[in-house]
Amino acid sequence: MSTFIETQFPIARLSAESYKERKANNGQTLTRLGKWWGRKPLILVRAAILGMLMPASSDARKDREIFLRILTMDDEGVWERLKEKGAGVPWRHEDPDISRRSFDALSYAERLRYCERPENIPGPTLAAWREINAHLGTTATSLGELVEQLGQRTFGHTPRVGDSFCGGGSIPFEAARIGCNAFGSDLNPVAGLLTWASLNLLGGGREVQEDVMRVQAEALAVADRQVTEWGIEHNALGERADAYLYCVEVKPEGCDYFIPLAPSWLIGEKSRVVARWIRVANADFLAPEIAVVSDAELKRYKEKEGATVADSRVVDPFDATRTWSVEALRGPEGLRRWSNDDLVPRPGDVFQERLYCIRWVKTVIRNGRPKEIRRYAAPDAADLAREAKVLELLRERFADWQREGFIPSRAIPESGAETDRLFRERGWTHWHHLFTPRQLLTHGLLGESSQRLAVSKQACVACLLGLGRMADWNARLSAWMFHAGNEKGNQVFYNQALNCHFNYATRALSKLGDTFSILADASENNVGLLGKLTQADARDLRETCDLWITDPPYADAVNYHELGDFFLAWYDKQLARAFPEWTPDARAELAVRGDGEDFRRSMVEIYRKLARHMPDNGLQMVMFTHQNPAVWADLGMILWAAGLKATAAWTISTETEAAGIKKGNYVQGTVCLVLRKRIASEPGFLDEVYPMVEDEVKRQIASMLALDEDGEPNFNDADYQLAAYAAALKVLTQYGNLDGKDVEHEVFAVRARNEKSDFQTVIERALGIACDTLVPRGLDTSWRELSLVERYYLRALDIESRGERRKGMYEELARGFGVTDIRPLLKSDKANGTRMFTPAGLAASLLAPVLGAESNHAALPARRGRVGAGAPHPFAVSPLRHLMFAIRETAAADNSPEPGRQYLRDTFGQGYWGKREGFVALLEWLAALAHAEGMNEWTADSEAARILAGRLRNDHA
């Protein structure tokens, strides 16, 4: 029996819900536990599990309606999730019926702005449960009861959900929260700690959570009293510092003073504060001046006036013509390697460190109310004395704290993609080198006080995770952010790298409380008993699960073992005390990474083991985020060799237009590939597979088109392309071999550069079928008459008219149509601003005679469209290109169609009459482009196309 997720999935609504969850930042349920890369949205996990448990009936529309009701993603459910019905929203009205109609008129993504997330409400209403139970034959009144009953029906017991790459814990946590028995494992102890915390802290119940919050609050209070007693954050004016700004400085050869380094000396855009540097008489250093500037000066500083680092070169602040290469300053032998005892640079080191600004805070009473006053100031002699005291206090405790594990003692592993830059760019060799003395002192204080206060394992883990979060927000790798309203130190892992900055921030203890405390409040959520966690290599698993949901590492997209070591350095000895059965090491040598033969063998071994450890009617879901056909082919062959067959694939976009899109040409969706065991092992033959793939691609696309919601498409072009790949996998993976070729031999075969496997060839052909199947609306009658490059251009215009601007999408389209060079057709190839040329934009470029045409058009420009030397671009000789030139001629003649009509008659001779009706259809389609949002560039050309279409329609021999 097929399940709901194998027949349909509410892509649009899940995408909007996923984006809302991700946009919540620290408001996400698991994010406060600590940083992990690629955590999947909890709503996606919930939907996936329920979609695999819910059977599909013969009534697809009713199935969809019920599924949305279960998730409170139907119209009634979304209305029930309103935070404040009718208050402060654009559809507010005294009449509640009018308010509801106004609310329903909004797009789904717009409605979510005013709603709680599904996880934050009890679930469907009693009325909804009656309808759900009537359709499914259940008697549930909660998600837990529904999961139990569906599991009993399918597997004979409460369903067990497993994840062998549990990472940040989304899958085991959400599985347990909705009533499944959950299992998670990961080789990396940092991932294990996060997952354990999700189940046993967030899922530990109110009593556990209140104890954790009490311990963390007491630890902060103890550390605060000590810092106040030392006097290292307070000045004589009664102010307390909350931020310290440092920079690297260097004294290049030929320069008689140290140059402080920063790509910008703007400190606060909203505060209008900048740093200036002043020569000091008879000294080899510069003095900082912290000043509030005018709007005009602020604008210059925003444009990086006075920057002393630009394009990897040091710039003299008093003579911009004098520059030095940063790489050359490091010297041919590289930088001195720091020793464990080094806490600050030694006097002879190339790169020195200096404090150049402090932000002071004082609370005053104004109009009977407390008000916080902030000011930025350059450090004075007393501030520098406090810095020296911080270093002295740290040195007194350094050895003891390293031995106890309150601060890191581990060396940074050699030869890592991320860690190598730490040696090369700063000479750092130990993880504690990534932190200033002030950071190590305050973090160590909290480590010491929390270790003394934490009695339970839960409190111990919470304090460790708190230290990890502090490390992520308070390190030498924390750049200072100065944009409007956001003047603070940034997260170390704002991306997936260990970035060494020339200027950086340290947070005072007074600004670390919210970072250290991992729980904001207590809840009754108690799911820990439903979850089991092990730290293990996925190849060694022995657990059996009914459903496996995994998000595997792939092609070193994230170097988990290296980045995780940043946190593990802080957990280290304390982790071993809390979990003596764990290995407190990332075991990089065992990590599944790369994209070569070893990686493929490991992946086949893992997924074969997962297939063996699930029942015959069990399912797997592999979450995947790649759009390269070669990578898809690789993954498909791995799963094929593991004895699995694909039954469905769905793409959930985690960035939506309605709520905003992050910048950058990157994959924006997660493909959820649904798999079952391949019980039979029938042989397959390529000559039979190709037509089956074509049928499956067309069937898949037809079903997706039929599921589009009114005014709210479920799918974009990326979804259709990925669906084509998945359709090919569905056909291919049902066979035990292909043309007699052994599966494992194909997976591990060594191929020449650019040589494609049969698997990849089939998948790429599937993309071509998809591209050819998706005909732009209005071009059905003329599509078959067009060449591939003409189809590409029109499809590219079609997706542009629907708001698609990602360069990768235009490149994927080109691959599907077999167009090898799209650069001459693109007006802009920006990552998120790709646009196609208009007829006026192309003008006479990229234009060549139609081969064999009876052309006597003597007035053609000399630029006949050869793209450099050699043969013309295939678009240059296409009828569509000449039609576009005719549009340009029409527009240039003040919309008189005669020059355009004459050009076409001269160019095509007698062939013109056979093409005239097709030209009219194309012109009418192009004439409509200007009506699409964001297509203003087409206004003039679309009008010319409309006028020329009318003239051609009435043309006679």
From TrEMBL:
Please tell me whether the keyword Transferase is annotated for this protein: yes
Gene3D superfamilies assigned to the protein according to its UniProt record, in alphabetical order: Vaccinia Virus protein VP39
GO BP of this protein = methylation
Record-linked SUPFAM superfamilies: S-adenosyl-L-methionine-dependent methyltransferases
Q: Which GO terms describe its molecular function?
A: methyltransferase activity
Pfam name, any one? DUF1156
Asked whether the keyword Cell inner membrane is assigned, the reply is no
Please give the InterPro entries that the UniProt record associates with this protein.
Antiphage_assoc (IPR049953), DUF1156 (IPR009537), SAM-dependent_MTases_sf (IPR029063)
Which keywords appear in this protein's UniProt record, sorted alphabetically?
Answer: Methyltransferase, Transferase
Domain DUF1156 spans what residues? 8-70
Q: Which NCBIfam families match?
A: DUF1156_antiphage
The protein, known as: DNA methylase
Q: What is the species listed in this Swiss-Prot or TrEMBL entry? A: Candidatus Accumulibacter aalborgensis
